[in-house]
Amino acid sequence: MKTNDTMEPWKFLDDYRGTAFEGEWPTLPEMFAITMSRYPDRPCLTVYEPGRVSLTYREAREAVLKASRHLRSIGVGRGSKVAVTGKNSPEWAVAYLAALEAGAVVVPIDYQLSVPEIVNLVRASDAEVLFVDEEKAAELGAALDSVLKARYSLAAGQPGYVYGLPAPAESALPPLVPAKEDDLAAILFTSGTTGKPKGVMLSHRNFVSDCYLAQGNMNIYHTDVFYALLPIHHSYTMLAVFIEALSVGAELVFGKKMAIKQVFKDLKEARVTMFLGVPLLFNKVLAGIQKGIREKGPLVNGLLSAMMAVSGFEKKVFGKNPGKRLFHAVLDKASLASNRICISGGGPLAPAVFKKYNQLGIDFVQGYGLTETSPIITLNPIYHYKETSVGKVLPRTQMKIVNPDSEGRGEIVVKGPMVMMGYYKMPEETKAVFTEDGWFKTGDVGYLDAENYLYLTGRAKNMIVTEGGKNVYPEEIENAFQLYDEVEQVLVAGYELDKATRSEGIEAHLYPNKDLFLDGGAAGKTGGSGWAAVEARMREIVDEVNQKLLPYQRISRVVVLKEPLEMTTTKKIKRFSGAKQA
Mean pLDDT over all residues of the chain? Predict the structure, then answer.
């Protein structure tokens, strides 16, 4: 079977080296210019609001060049910092690319942070220009008046709108000093705290190499339609959706909100082929599909389940994919009929969920990475996937496991062109995450198999040490809850059993899906008899999960929550130390 291992999808760049760019990899502006020259009339940036509004690659490039000339006219140049914060939109993409086109460094900031947090990140990054959506424009403008050289809008009809900036002719501007391949391209903040934030410095080489090397494990085409639903400031969406789409000439459709009905509408209307999300999102979509199947009655449910098992077997063993045809009606109802590949990232996905999507005929891909690695370092190839793995190590990327335990599990360290330059103005913190011989320490624990596939166990800092001295990773236990519709959120943590021996018990914090139990959650608020039934069901689920776990992994304490746990903008639960401090 011919695979991407023998094809090197980035080989076409050889035709442009020496003319469109110099060196090993183009910069992001050079990459965008190359794609525009190949597919000028293909749709590039699209939004449905509610009608379809789209820019072709030629039009998007013209908008970028115009905004870039304006930035240069106010003194923005190589090495300047330009912050961008706002909802996902074509304007966000144009502002991002315009800053890079001017030779500047872009600073994408989470729009859901509070105004003081955004102010802190703008100051910490030394940004002198800000692009912002209208809701926070006035407040941020007032708070940053003494810092910023200029502030512009990502919203139509507002003063300083990015598409309407006055741009002098190129001849009226000083010569452009473009960024080089190894220059800093972006500073991505891993925290929005009001303390000292940690800014990950990623170069053009980091982004572009990661973009193309990821295609060594996954084919993407100019005919694909990507769906940008998750916040685009995050490294996962930025690389795997935004930059990947631009690298091949695919269409990029911007989703407005993560409500399942709206997501289904966007997927169907845009005929999305590349759907990237986090485990929580894919769990909800699968839960909706399974609910629809169950509603057809036990006979049809049993028949479809048997057909899924056969379909999955054929796909896994023989490389054939009958599922798309067999379950077309099911997939169409879930707005996935046009979908070619689903990609899950941003956290661990239960192998059972991975398996069910593949049984339905969807090519499902799971990957792994960190902001510090641009972020992708492993992807599960669709031609040879392993449900329990987070993927095969990318081409030209080195990975090894240090200090493995008796089962081969240890800290994952990595080397490759996608590994960050360091943390902005934090030399000590940078030094702490690299070994003396230059390996980046991920802080994650896992193991590799003979084919260089990675199996992720969990975060080293989250590890629980049991009374018997066993190491338990909460992420492994949390995965076992992903197919239970009744559980909206789960967080597993250790609690102190014995202070002298530092041994821990295992507890689970569960937030129920109140829509399934409580007719809008009213009983949960009053603490009435309905809540007792919910608590009882949560404990039943824990008992069922415990039966599937090894004895030393079993949960011994259950906390049923009446309020949801706080989440990040990429829908990951913000961890806490559980009852260790109680």
Answer: 88
DSSP letters along 404-438, please? --TTS-EEEEEESTTS--EETT-HHHHHHTB-TTS
pLDDT tens per residue across span 236-270: 999 999 999 999 999 999 987 777 778 888 899 99
Fill in the amino acid letter for 302: G
DSSP states of 279-308: HHHHHHHHHHHHHHHHTT-HHHHHHHHHHH
Whole-number Å distance between alpha carbons of 372 and 418? 8
Distance CA 491, CA 390 (A): 21
Number of Cβ within a 10 Å radius of residue 172: 10
Q: State residue 90 phi and psi, 5-degree precision.
A: -60, -35
Rounded CA-CA distance 343/571 in Å is 15
Is 439 in contact with 415 (CB distance < 8 Å)?
Answer: yes
3-state DSSP assignment of residue 107: strand
Q: Please write the tens of the pLDDT for every residue from 305-356.
A: 899 989 988 988 888 888 888 988 888 888 899 999 998 887 777 888 888 9
DSSP 87: S
- At 466, give phi and psi (nearest 5°): -80, 175
- pLDDT digit string, tens, across residues 115-157: 999 999 999 999 999 999 999 999 999 999 999 999 999 999 9
**Token pair 């689920």 in the structure block, residue:** 541
Torsion, Cα 391 447 470 439, to 10 degrees, reads -110
- One DSSP character per residue, 333-388 reads HTT-TT--EEEE-SS---HHHHHHHHHTT-EEEEEEE-GGGSSEEEE--TTS--TT
Residue-wise pLDDT tens digits, 166-188: 999 999 999 999 999 999 999 99
